[in-house]
Amino acid sequence: MLDQSQVDAWLADFLAKLRDRFGDRLIFVGHHGSWARGEAGPESDIDCTVVLDHVEDDDLTTFRDIINAMPNAQSVASVLLLSVAELKQMPRYEHMQFFYGCKVFHGSIDHLITPPPSESLIADIKFKASDNLHAARHYLLFPHELPKVVHKLKYHFKNCFYALQWWFLINESKFIPRKDDIIEMLDDTDDKEVVLVARDWHKLEDDRTQRPAYYIELLERWSRGMIARLEDYGA
Description:
Elements: H1 4-22, E1 26-32, H2 34-37, E2 46-52, H3 57-68, H4 73-76, E3 77-83, H5 84-89, H6 96-99, E4 103-107, H7 118-141, H8 146-149, H9 154-172, H10 179-185, H11 189-199, H12 205-210, H13 212-230
Parallel strand pairs: 2-3
Antiparallel strand pairs: 1-2, 1-4
Helix pairs in contact: 1-3, 7-9, 7-13, 9-11, 10-11, 11-13
């Protein structure tokens, strides 16, 4: 696993290469994800978003060459490349990543997009909860080898954490970037538990294998409860 100094060096090298190859066409570079939050784990990627003025075929080749020249790119690089037009056309809730929990390394997008309204955050919470619900119920209601399929739910539990970040932002006007911090602020037992699972996913591998139904039922119950909470918002 990389340490923070190695990630910082990787990002500095990546930014230098982007500036050298794209020059004034480079509009924005932002760093987000677990390394930006200061809670990276053994399998954490280096997450970035790069925005160019436009994207053509040759730009894809250039960008691929830059990534291929980066150390450990296949195992750590997780970079989203967008044009200005593509950035503007993203679903509004996806713009939240640029305003909360994002370290800006180059440029600005403030003149291009604005923070999404609460309605967009509610829509994203609804999408995440519904997607989680469908996955959990599929495993619970149809024949599956639960000790195997439970390990596929990593990102579903991460989405519980992201949904609760938006929930706090809507209801408390606070953005809580780290899992440890949000756990301390949660009152609901299932809210706490899904974030704990997301935080400790790698440590819980053996327990998931031994008690798969517990985790799948937790995900189903949390998702069902969150959807019920959304009824008060007309979502």
